Amino acid sequence: MTKSFSILIPTYNEHDNITPLVERIAAAIPGNDYEVVFVDDDSRDGTSELINSLSPKYPVRVVVRKDKKGLASAVVDGFGFASADTVVVMDADLQHPPEVIPGLIKSMRDGADIAVGSRYVPGGGTEGWSTTRKVISSGAIALAHLLLPHSRGVKDPMSGFFAFKKSVISGVTLQPIGYKILLEMLVVGNSEKVSEVPFMFQTRQKGESKLSAKLEVEYLRHLLSLMRRSGELLRFSKFLLVGASGVIVNEGLLWLLHGNAEISLLLSSVIAIEASIITNFVLNNRFTFADRRGKGVKSYFTHLGQFNLVSLGAVAINLGLLWLFKTKFGVYYLIANLIGIAVSMLWNYFANNWWTWKK
Ligand code: GDD
Ligand code: MN
Q1: Ligand 1, from 36, 64, 210: best to mutate by most atoms within 8 Å of Cβ?
Q2: What percent of the chain has pLDDT over 90?
Q3: Model pTM?
């Protein structure tokens, strides 16, 4: 008979953590209606042998893979070995307290598609982290929120402790580059309701962490890959294209009004700028952010107002940087202006992405 949920645990050299882990899981979850599946990458310290020796007493089994392929692939492979429709993913090193599992399962029963064990909701946290580690962690999350709108609703998209329904990943190709499987699932999976359950990330007592600094670089590659696969890179390209069309509108009108109709340069320029802001808005609303377009006249004009304010900010940034680089750092003014244009363009994109066409 299929159990009501599977607990999937990747392991590599976690011998000393296995017994307390399995005991604490059994103590935290009443009854026998679950299975624990370990995916071990051929540990050298007897991890899999120990798991096998526990299997007469506890509902545990281990799948051993030869040629170590890494954490993410162990988890993704593990989905195929988990027999239940609800799967809990957690680490073996007790940094994820097993006592939190019932809370995750409760969220799932209350209708969540994904329940995240979260360090960043009230009641959650990290134990003994240095300020540097905290800053890196928050920075990584902020970056994900900025670049991947699908992750925005979740305070801890980097957690390695979560439960999900298999329907979230059915028909989806998962290809996490680093080890952020939850992030991958949030962005390319099919989840409607995601809830977060607080937990305290514990310090590791036994064994050592396997995740090195190299993986922080992998994370950036993963972000880029997710932007491409979820259409966010395409969105950015459309925004650039629309911006280029705005330059044509602006130049064309300036030429018509000042060059031909002999209207003063200042007035012509103000009209040309505003006209290009409006055409940019219309095109972005129609193409770049078509999926987040509001309904009705009121929302149309609200968005237009926001777009104008963001553009105003862009002008300030452009002028500010031009002045800063030219007068303070002695950069040639055309180059200084290019820096201003590039930064204000990014500002335009992200402010509109985050605010005007909020997801
Ligand atoms: N099968 C397999 N293969 N398991 C692995 C491998 C591997 O190559 N590398 C690590 N693991 C297992 C470890 O044995 C442990 O159970 C779990 O994956 C997490 O590995 P750690 O080395 O303890 O990772 P961490 O504590 O630095 O990172 C954890 O916290 C991060 C958030 O701060 C993980 O949960 C990350 O996913 C999470 O983002
Ligand atoms: Mn760990």
Answers
A1: 210
A2: 90
A3: 0.89
